[in-house]
Description:
The structure is a single chain. The protein is an alpha/beta fold. Helices cover 35% and strands 21% of the residues. It contains ten helices and twelve strands. A seven-stranded parallel sheet has the order 8-7-6-11-9-12-10, with helices on both faces. Pfam families: MRM3-like_sub_bind, SpoU_methylase. Keywords: Methyltransferase, Transferase. One of its GO terms (biological process) is methylation. Belongs to the class IV-like SAM-binding methyltransferase superfamily. RNA methyltransferase TrmH family.
Amino acid sequence: MSRAEVITSARNPLLKEVRRALSRGTLTADGLCVAETFHLLEEALRSGLETPVVVASDSVRGVVERHVGKLHGVRLITVPDAVFQEVSATETAQGVLALVRPPQWTMEHVLRGHSLVVILDGVQDPGNAGAIVRAAEAFGATGLLLLKGTVSPWNAKTLRASAGSLFRVPFLEGVAPDLARKAVAQHKMEVFVAVPRASLSLKDAALDGRCALVIGSEGRGVSKEMEGAGLSLHIPTTGVESLNAAMAAGILLYEAWRQRTVK
């Protein structure tokens, strides 16, 4: 890596592009995601992803250089702490962000092998969406389909909540409901739609085959387009009617993992 560059103004074109991507929850114009925090920088590098730019505040420059100083093809930029705070999407910024080239996935990646797919149907809370992606990796899901109306995976909070899983778990975003239904049908997958008060209980559901789990939005639940896509399934609870979307997804994924790994 060459000597660190110094930028002193938040009006610099690169920093303006970073701030635009963070504010909109999108990739940059060059197709890079903005990964803020040391943990996400480490996860991007651990995942073997191209990381062409790393921006560090002056106060943590030495720490960042120890992370990326020996890497080739990384452009290290340092900025004053106040400038970094202007660009940052967090209130308590750690002083580091990376521009990362995300993997390119296809439907075949998501539905590969003994498929276990999570379909997010209008999940709009970025913390929930990111936590679901993390649970998907933890319990061996083959991938996720983020339907239209679901929060962007590149929203800063979504990416942080995923704790780096978005760098590794195959997913497609902005998928139309009819395309999702056709894809799982073509792959002969059983679809389970998480719905409170459904007649089928999780304890009676067979999740050891090729299957898809549909998780609806926090406020409205599963959309009409996906409600009839498969078997309605509920998680038995005591004292409460429904669960947080991320918690529900985690329970379903764990049960699927348990059934698939039991000897």
